[in-house]
Design brief:
Blueprint: H1 2-19, H2 24-59, H3 61-77, H4 82-96, H5 100-114, H6 120-133, H7 140-148, H8 158-180, H9 187-202
Helix pairs in contact: 2-7, 3-4, 4-5, 5-6, 6-8
Length: 203
Amino acid sequence: MNALFLCLFLSSAAILLALSPENFLIGILDGASKSATVSFSLIATYSVWLGLMQVWEDSGVSRAVSKLLRPLASKLFKTKDEEALNAVCMNLSVNLLGIAGAATPYGIKAANLLDKTENAEYSSAMFFVLNATSIQLIPTSIVGVRAAMHSLAPADVIFPTLLTTAFSTVLGVFLTWLFLRPKRKSQASLYTPILKTKQAGTQ
């Protein structure tokens, strides 16, 4: 990824130097200034939401939300592991607010725990899909970036984002369930030990 960004920067710099060398330094300084503005705005946004998440966790709200989501998560991920489900629910609840950075620690913990469950392949794939699509009730990061860039209506993206992420999440969950769902044992395989016992008894 670093090599890719380096190639993009070098090619863009070469083109700018060839076409408009007098704007090269101005463009670099302007880009640096805008990136600093966006970074400070996101720091403020994340600080507010992370502080709120800490209050929720200390007051027990996050545990209540996690408990509310746990039955659905248990069916969706096909596991009864309480620790894994708790990490998954925390990750999903933070992602709903569009704070990807805050969801990362819970995501890493959930991924490691799901790898040890009985349906690890399916559970891990479902978790990856939900994190990649992730329904966004409030796209906090995007709204923060738009506000930092002086958008007249930074929150206008909330409803379109909700619709698109809901569609992508439902489609992703369905396809994961369709192609990777755990296989149920057939009746033949269930009765095989009984048949073998009867055959052994008749011999």
